[in-house]
Design goal:
138 residues, 2 domains, 70% helix, 0% strand
């Protein structure tokens, strides 16, 4: 029976070195630091594109932001979630996939509500005219 926890498997807890890689917990700090620096660079690059009005058309700017967001997503997966090609990562990838689906449903539903809210709450011009005409003393 495997008594190692997830944190022991990735080397985040003190103890014996990992049998497969021989890494100790302090070996993760360079990985976390490089992931943090890459995340900052990608975030500031996206900010600079938008804030300083990059000389590009809107579709090109949008594509650049989507690419930067996708690269940021990959950096987060590799450096912080420790998703690699291995059997133990399959369970974490499954949980991540379910989380992505739930977030997509929440974001998609929110966007749908935002774009259809005006049509569901605002009366038409004919309804507005009828209301004004039905009021006495105006």
């Amino acid at each position: 029976m495997n008594t190692r926890t997830y944190f022991e498997e990735i080397g985040a807890l003190p103890g014996e070195p990992d049998a497969a890689s021989g890494s100790r917990p302090h070996a993760l700090w360079p990985m976390y630091l490089s992931g943090f620096i890459l995340s900052l660079v990608l975030t500031f690059a996206a900010y600079a594109l938008v804030a300083y009005h990059a000389p590009a058309s809107v579709p090109i700017l949008t594509l650049a932001l989507v690419v930067l967001a996708f690269v940021q997503f990959l950096v987060q997966l590799v450096f912080f979630f420790h998703l690699k090609i291995e059997k133990a990562a399959y369970e974490r990838l499954t949980v991540l996939g379910i989380s992505v689906v739930l977030v997509a449903i929440l974001v998609g539903g929110s966007i749908w509500i935002i774009f259809t809210l005006n049509g569901r709450t605002m009366p038409t011009l004919e309804q507005q005219i009828q209301y004004v005409n039905s009021q006495s003393g105006i």
